[in-house]
Queue: 4 jobs
Job 1
Amino acid sequence: MVELILFGTLGCHLCEEAELILAHFKQVNIELIDIAEQDQWQDKYAIRIPVLYHAETGKELCWPFEQVQAQAFINALN
């Protein structure tokens, strides 16, 4: 199973859209992280959220993305 982080924030409609897209992937575990919790995340991701992040490789998929791009990102991690 692929472990990913979705950086976003509460009330972000784009983040909600990203969550809906990612819900289709059963082979992926998504940890949701609110960038408001730490200044470093706000500094790095404030204008880029939602951002899908793979901690092992440091690879990121920034918005906008659709299901096809998310699948390609996930496939490239395997």
Job 2
Amino acid sequence: MSFGRARSRRWRDWSERGIRWSLFCASFFSVFVTFAILVILAKESFLFFGFEEVSIGEFFGSTEWNPLLGGEKHFGIWPLVCGTMLVTVIAACFALPIGLTAAVYLSEYARPTTRAILKPALEVLAGIPTVVYGFFALTAITPILHSIAPRFGNYNAMSAGLAIGIMILPIVCSLSEDALRSVPRSLRDGAYALGGTKFDVSVKVVVPAALSGIVASFLLAMSRAIGETMVVALAAGGIAQMTAEPWAEVQTMTAYMVQIFLGDAPANGVEYASSYAVAAVLFTITLSFTLVGRYILKRFREEYE
């Protein structure tokens, strides 16, 4: 009997060690991939700034971007950044309020059976391929916008932004609803005891108590919108320009990288190398959103017992 217990104990110890090393290897692999991406982006960006046609001052100070045109080339990153931010702002203005409203309904108003049906149905949107959203923007959203205002052309920032807003809607709704449901029932009961209505409790108690999780879901959704590729490549257009007009044709950073890797530019040319510099800027912007989200979670996190 004692031999069996010792054997079982040894087997359990070896199993624990195996699980521990498996988790360590998974964590180390994630960190390794992140550092590998950083090294590649830094190396290729350094090579990009080594070309005679490029200077750091022009890259961060110029407002003209036309690396693929004949003649004199210009590498000012701001038109691509402006197009990316315009599409992201449109997507955020559409998805954030609708997603938060849906989350409040699912958390505070919907019955359990209704929530069990609506939430999975909403999360199905997250599983649709992004290229489908791109074709949906071209074939459905753009004709509707053109019928409303003829100034909307075949490619425009509004169509791409609305499609991305629909795509990130499940992220906002699901994460915000989880944050709202994590608020203790005692806070709701205390507000009801003070004479608050259902709407008062939802808006003035539950939402502020879950604010850190809601803001984190907003930042995560916006990071997803900034990095979206196929929707903007299909629906936003290919003209890099600084504009705030939603009906204008724009080009985002990810759409430019798709254009480069289609094979129109030589692999050893400055145009090809510029895609890595653009990717480095995109990585920096996304990382900034992640760091801001972590700060907000740490600074405003509410802990309940």
Job 3
Amino acid sequence: MESIAIEKHEEHKEKIKQVFHEVAKVVVGQEYMVNRLMIGLFTNGHVLLEGVPGLAKTLTVSTLAQVLHLEFQRIQFTPDLLPSDLVGTMIYNQREGKFEVKKGPIFANIILADEINRSPAKVQSALLEAMQEKQVTIGETTFKLDRPFLVMATQNPVDQEGTYPLPEAQVDRFMMKVFVDYPTKNQEMEIMRRISNMKFDYTVNTVLSKEDIFAIRDQVNKVTISDSLERYIIELVYATRKPLDYKLNEQAQYIQFGASPRASINLNLAAKAMAYMEGRDYVLPEDIKEIALDVMNHRIILNYEAEADNVRTPDIIKAILNKVPINK
């Protein structure tokens, strides 16, 4: 049985590499974003992508859904969107003389909530219920959502016009918030050449099935993490809440609220997934440090002084990682 498990593990590692290869057929660069989306997939965590328009956020998510052969729905969030446009509604069937349920686009495996901060609070709260409860209520009937169910949302930076900043409670339900950066000069040259060639082919091959994804989730769950590294995660999260206890005197003046307990849970899960994707069955400190920014940057709320002094959340997290020791 042991040899069968090892063989399966090797097979899945090879398939994960193939996923990156297939996505790269369509999307130039952005391996970091794909890596984080895969971590979300393997740990059942939702991902929020933030970046200016034109960085292939939407294209990457839709391509990944094709490679994974999962049912995909893209929902363009706009100021006039209604909750019923998202989850569905009751419609009257005149022939039958009764109301019937018309399901909305939320009933899929991967939901791309495009420009999520373009819609008002009612729509965002409807999405929040689906994300948290993995179910939707239409009329008097509650429907379970199909597994896997992942929300991969994109948003433009909130300082742009015409946006509704997401409530902290909703942002906290995203496992990670990933900042998507501009491509390098060479990558942009490749993008320009590809798109300029009108014969560019967007077709990709399916690599992972639902069964593979569930099997990988089980394997990620079996990745070991030592007691000292579990304590290290707790110390990192507590340093955001009580920075003065960790001699973070300069950073303390800028933090209004620290990270929630979801930060600890998701740091643990994401570090395990990171180790698994690196081909290990145990977590290293580097795995935690590598993923800490994406897991915590949307969970630390800074005050007006931070804005005035141009201090950003990544600066705070970097200082915490440099200051908090790993106790053996």
Job 4
Amino acid sequence: MTKVGHNKAGGVAVDQLKSIIDRVERLESEKTAIGSDIRDVFAEAKGNGFDVKAIRKILKLRRMDAGQREEEETVLDTYMAALGMLPLFESEDE
């Protein structure tokens, strides 16, 4: 006895397979539309004079938890200091 809605063809639950494929196709379509919307927002930001690279970096940092963000900043500062890319701090006595 087969379950209702699960017609078998060659050992495959056809209705379930079709449902999965339909859902994935719908989600892929939504993903494409959302991607287009995001590109439009970045184009708007650029048109208003904002630096899109900086906005993307901020978004990346906001996705991180505080510990991850601090670790990344520490490593970056360490590497930049090693390469002489950070200004030397002046003492307050001078």
